[in-house]
Design goal:
It is a single chain. This protein has helices at 2-12, 15-31, 33-36, 42-58, 80-93, 97-108, 113-120, 124-147. The termini are far apart. The relative contact order is 0.11. Helix 1 packs parallel to helix 4 and helix 6 (97-108) packs across helix 8 (124-147). Helix content is 72%, strand content 0%. It is mainly alpha-helical and 148 residues long. It has one domain (2-62, 80-147): Butyryl-CoA Dehydrogenase, subunit A, domain 3. One of its GO terms (biological process) is DNA-templated transcription initiation. InterPro entries: RNA_pol_sigma-70-like (IPR039425), RNA_pol_sigma-70_dom (IPR014284), RNA_pol_sigma70_r2 (IPR007627), RNA_pol_sigma70_r4_t2 (IPR013249), RNA_pol_sigma_r2 (IPR013325), RNA_pol_sigma_r3/r4-like (IPR013324), WH-like_DNA-bd_sf (IPR036388). Residues 87-138 form the RNA polymerase sigma factor 70 region 4 type domain.
Length: 148
Amino acid sequence: MEVLRRTGYLLCRDWHLADDLVSITIAKLYRHWKRASGVDHLDAYVRRILVRTWLDERGRPWRREELSGDLPEPAMEPNSAVLDRAQLFALLEALPPRRRAAVVLRIYCDLSVEETAAILGCSAGTVKSQTARGLVTLRARLAETTLS
């Protein structure tokens, strides 16, 4: 369950939305348990539900709101480990949804190209190109932020 929650967080970068995604995923799994119980790799099946649920949620109009403004509390003392993590999340968030999903599934979840393609419902070539382009974009943006 915690792995699903962390994967959801990497996709959406919001713990509350990640919890919602996991809840929706579990509900969908329960609703289709007869089909799911016959699947060879249940975790891949559940991961596919999670990613597709996130992609569906991204298309909803109320999810397109932009956050702005300053926080009311004072900023904490910077910590390099936290800044690195926050920087990584910001870089991931800048990727388009399907490209981010490919990078998270291939790099964080350590799935094969074929497993990722099955979850995203696309070809292996698409997974390879999306992952490669996502990594190139992440590296370029990381280089830009370290230079400035």
